[in-house]
């Protein structure tokens, strides 16, 4: 019978341990286990080191019993480990075989099949039973046993595509990644009852080509725009983020909105014009002008095309424009951009009431057309399930009554005091009021002093102007408009009040000289009306590549240090 030695403090439980006094085991259970692994027939005698006596002593009967139990446990564990290792080896062998056969599968088109008709996805839904070829980006990728499901996106829609048989097993398919571009060939089939997919169809793929393989791993698409990333990082990756469901949906609704607005203008007989963006006049105050060096002269990026639209009335009648306006806004509110798409119109020979009714018609009808649009309508429902189309007439609320309402509801002005006549109703107060009332509001008759130089005074109260802001729940002001001063002297007084040098405005002033007329107009912020329609928290989500102070990227000359020093990312001030 052999002897094995155990010393808890310095022993080592390994199969290579000798078990001598110099190289003892750590535990008695392992010593027994090791001796059995060496197929020793007889149980060894165990000696345990006793620190108190500083010597090895034979193990007690109770400790031996415990060691035997422990040894049984170790044996079971070893068997399990062996089984697992075997399984792993088998799996590795299977995978290697699979890979080898996957590598051997070449994807080839079956020449005997009917020629595939080139189709955009939106058009494929009606081609049940036909063999088509569609190109696009892999939006989703999922494998289910021996079938690969691809949701393909081409901007016109989404289609579910099924790859089975050799196509699903081929290495080329296993290597596919999200956002790779492919051309898929196959037959459009109707989905079985109870299953849902875009268009109610599926593409049974019989052949495909890879156009551009997107990276996987570290550099994969999902790593670049991981959900919940810092908004600033997502803005850096805007070119990729735009491919996401929500942003692309908003951009589609945006396109439908602009199309609908043009349709309403057409129905109302307004003519589209495109005034210049490089100007030498201000419209909405000097503090938000973007200055530029225009061949040595001072010029600005336009704040509004209004003044130019006014000059078109005499030649073209009622006119509109949809183009960029620029504001050097210092504040970082969730509804201010440095560049936004401005929908502006100007109408001649009308009253203030006519103007309000026209704005009402434009908003109600263009929203109606968006909701009726087969692509944008469902997207609005998806983005803003609780959206209710506005109905005319909108609530009319005079500025003076709004002041009373704010005081009655204990909403304070910017100084933290009760509102008084003449106070500007700043963004936070305005939104509280609009959200509480909860319906579209025409806020009218603002005091002369808080509005622009060109606004006409009300004949029954010269302290106030024939002006309107359209306020929508969750966003606040989406439109600003007014009747314009059509009298020469009154206009000159307006310029003087605002301290504006009139030299640069001779062409605008001439409108009052060569056949003046009552007229009015308005401007709608496209991103603001969209934020309301699509229920977005900020107008930044409604612009393709939003520009605001500190953000001109992609691509930007603003340094990273500047951005991080200003922490512009997700801070909005009201
Ligand atoms: O109220 P605003 O400044 O009015 C004008 O510019 C007039 N000249 C328009 C006209 O009568 N033709 O701007 C009109 C609208 C606002 O109601 C708002 O929706 C949007 O333009 N807007 C902005 N949108 C995003 N970012 C900004 N910095 C904006 N400033 C104004």
Primary descriptors:
five-stranded mixed beta barrel; single chain; eight-stranded mixed beta sheet; 34% helix; binds 4-amino-1,4-dioxobutan-2-aminium adenosine-5'-monophosphate; 574 residues; elongated; 22 strands; alpha+beta
Would you give an account of this structure?
- By secondary structure, the chain is an alpha+beta fold.
- It has 18 helices and 22 strands.
- The strands form five sheets. The chain has an eight-stranded mixed beta sheet, with helices on both faces.
- A hairpin with a 4-residue loop joins strand 6 and strand 7.
- Helix 9 (245-267) packs across helix 11, helix 9 crosses helix 12 and helix 11 packs across helix 12.
- It is elongated.
- It starts with a strand and ends in an 8-residue tail after the last helix.
- Mean pLDDT is 93; it is low at 556-574.
- The structure holds 4-amino-1,4-dioxobutan-2-aminium adenosine-5'-monophosphate.
- Residues 283-284, 304, 306, 327, 329, 336-337, 340, 342, 344, 477-481, 521-525, 527-528, 539 line the site of 4-amino-1,4-dioxobutan-2-aminium adenosine-5'-monophosphate (4AD).
């Amino acid at each position: 019978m052999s002897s094995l030695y155990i010393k808890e403090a310095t022993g080592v439980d390994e199969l290579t341990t000798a078990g001598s006094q110099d190289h003892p085991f750590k535990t008695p259970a392992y010593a027994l286990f090791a001796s059995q692994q060496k197929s020793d027939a007889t149980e060894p005698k165990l000696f345990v080191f006793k620190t108190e006596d500083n010597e090895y002593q034979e193990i007690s009967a109770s400790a031996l019993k415990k060691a035997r139990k422990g040894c049984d446990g170790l044996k079971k564990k070893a068997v399990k480990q062996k089984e697992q290792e075997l399984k792993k080896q088998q799996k590795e062998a299977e995978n290697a075989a699979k890979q080898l056969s996957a590598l051997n599968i070449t994807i080839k088109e079956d020449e005997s099949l009917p020629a595939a008709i080139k189709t955009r996805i939106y058009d494929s839904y009606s081609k049940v039973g036909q063999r088509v070829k569609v190109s696009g980006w892999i939006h989703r990728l999922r494998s289910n046993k021996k079938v690969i499901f691809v949701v393909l996106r081409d901007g016109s829609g989404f289609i579910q595509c099924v790859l089975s048989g050799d196509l699903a097993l081929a290495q080329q398919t296993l290597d596919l990644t999200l956002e790779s571009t492919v051309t898929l060939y196959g037959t459009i089939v109707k989905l079985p009852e109870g299953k849902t997919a875009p268009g109610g169809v599926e593409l049974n793929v019989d052949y495909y080509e890879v156009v551009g393989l997107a990276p996987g791993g570290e550099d994969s698409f999902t790593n670049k725009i991981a959900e919940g990333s810092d908004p600033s990082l997502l803005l850096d990756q805007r070119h990729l983020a735009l491919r996401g469901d929500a942003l692309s949906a908003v951009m589609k609704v945006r396109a439908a909105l602009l199309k609908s607005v043009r349709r309403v203008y057409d129905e109302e007989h307004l003519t589209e014009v495109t005034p210049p963006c490089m100007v030498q006049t201000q419209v909405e105050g000097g503090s938000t002008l973007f200055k530029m060096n225009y061949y040595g002269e001072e010029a600005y990026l336009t704040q509004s095309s209004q003044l130019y639209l006014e000059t078109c009335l005499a030649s073209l009648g009622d006119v509109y424009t949809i183009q960029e306006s620029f504001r050097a806004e210092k504040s970082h509110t969730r509804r201010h951009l440095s560049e936004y798409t401005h929908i502006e119109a100007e109408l001649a020979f009308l009253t203030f009431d006519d103007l309000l009714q026209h704005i009402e018609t434009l908003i109600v009808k263009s929203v109606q057309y968006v909701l009726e649009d087969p692509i944008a309508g469902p997207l609005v429902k998806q983005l803003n399930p609780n959206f209710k189309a506005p109905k005319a007439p909108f609530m009319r609320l005079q500025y003076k009554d709004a002041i009373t309402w704010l005081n009655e509801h204990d909403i304070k002005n910017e100084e933290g005091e009760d509102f008084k006549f003449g106070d500007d109703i700043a963004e936070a107060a305005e939104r509280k009021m609009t959200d509480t009332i909860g319906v579209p509001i025409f806020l009218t008759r603002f005091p002369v002093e808080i509005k622009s130089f060109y606004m006409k005074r009300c004949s029954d109260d010269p302290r106030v102007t024939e002006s309107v802001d359209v306020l929508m729940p969750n966003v606040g002001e989406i439109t600003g408009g007014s009747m314009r001063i059509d009298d020469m002297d009154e206009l000159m007084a307006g310029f003087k009040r605002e301290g504006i040098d009139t030299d640069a405005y001779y062409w605008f002033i001439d409108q009052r000289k060569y056949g003046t007329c009552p007229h009015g107009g308005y401007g709608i912020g496209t991103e603001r009306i969209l934020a309301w329609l699509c229920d977005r928290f900020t107008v930044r989500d409604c612009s393709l590549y939003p520009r605001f102070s500190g953000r001109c990227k992609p691509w930007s000359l603003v340094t990273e240090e500047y951005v991080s020093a200003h922490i512009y990312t997700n801070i909005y001030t009201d």
